[in-house]
Amino acid sequence: MMNTTHPTLPLISLGDHQVSRLIIGDNPIYGYSHFNQLLSQHQRDAHSPDQVMATLKRAEEVGIRAWQNTITERSLSDLLRYREEGGTIKWLCLSAGAQWYDDPDCVFEAARYHPIGMAPHGGGVGDRCLREGKLGHLKDILKRIRDSGVLVGLSVHDPLLIQIAEDEAWDVDYYMTALYHLRGAREEFEQKFGHAPLGEIYLREHRIKMCEQIQQTSKPCLAFKVLAAGRAVASKEQVKHEFEFALKNIKPIDALLIGMYQKFGDQIGENAALISELCQELSGS
């Protein structure tokens, strides 16, 4: 039986909601590995609906109060079952890729399932609108989220988008902030070497750029890609170092959004204990 003894996870406010400073993501659950198709398939195979329920219940045990996932038929099915079985973790909805870019009215369909907040996908919508000069389209999607009655989130990979949203006082309640700018890193690689890289590139200096933008907004930020999509997990010491870096360089009102994989151990329990410990140390308590 798993040990449920753990320090208390600190909380932050998202609108009128209280959520933990550690939020569980969905990449490992639904096979968005950011490595290769073999690992992605392994992750999908490992997560039957029963295993997803066990994962969410474990998250609940350690004090995690929010789950962010990409809305798909499968993830929605798991969410509804979790609620039917008495689950209390709040739901933060992320659009599926470019879906809301192509059909903004999908926002209202997603709102029917009562998320506390919704955000258009960072790569498929937010950063795409920035690149294409279609920020009016992005703001229209955000307005639809506001009209649906839930919190308005903006997922961002390129820190320039936060700067613009802040300078223009966009109607946003929270940001989802990637600590690594994957498209930017790819472009830098291509400029230097003249060809595309094999796979994703994670540049450490990009973390500083995003954290500077996080610190300059008074709105809550949910920092993700904290562990470089599983590339910075060589040891427990490295995981602690990555979490510590993030917590020191974001604000006390911000949270870490972490994908966790229970196949080979209790990452949820370990991460919750570590975040609780680090937050206590950083607060001086």
Number of helices: 13
Q: Which radius of gyration do the C-alpha atoms yield?
A: 18 Å
- Uncertain segments of ≥5 residues (pLDDT<50)? 1-5
Tell me, rounded to a whole number, the average pLDDT: 95
**CATH H-level homologous superfamily name:** Aldolase class I
Structural class: alpha/beta
CATH topology: TIM Barrel
Tell me the strand order in the biggest sheet: 3-10-9-8-7-6-5-4
Explain the overall architecture.
The chain is α/β, with parallel strands linked by helices. It has a single domain (12-283), classed as Aldolase class I (TIM Barrel, Alpha-Beta Barrel). The chain is 48% helix and 15% strand. It contains 13 helices and ten strands. It has helices at 27-30, 37-46, 49-61, 73-84, 99-102, 106-111, 122-132, 135-148, 159-167, 182-193, 205-216, 236-249, 267-283, and strands at 11-14, 17-20, 22-24, 66-70, 90-94, 117-119, 151-156, 174-178, 221-224, 255-258. A hairpin with a 2-residue loop joins strand 1 and strand 2 (17-20). Helix 7 packs across helix 8 (135-148), helix 9 runs parallel beside helix 11 (205-216) and helix 12 (236-249) packs across helix 13. It is globular and about 45 Å long. The protein starts with 10 loop residues before the first strand and ends with a helix. Mean pLDDT is 95; it is low at 1-5.
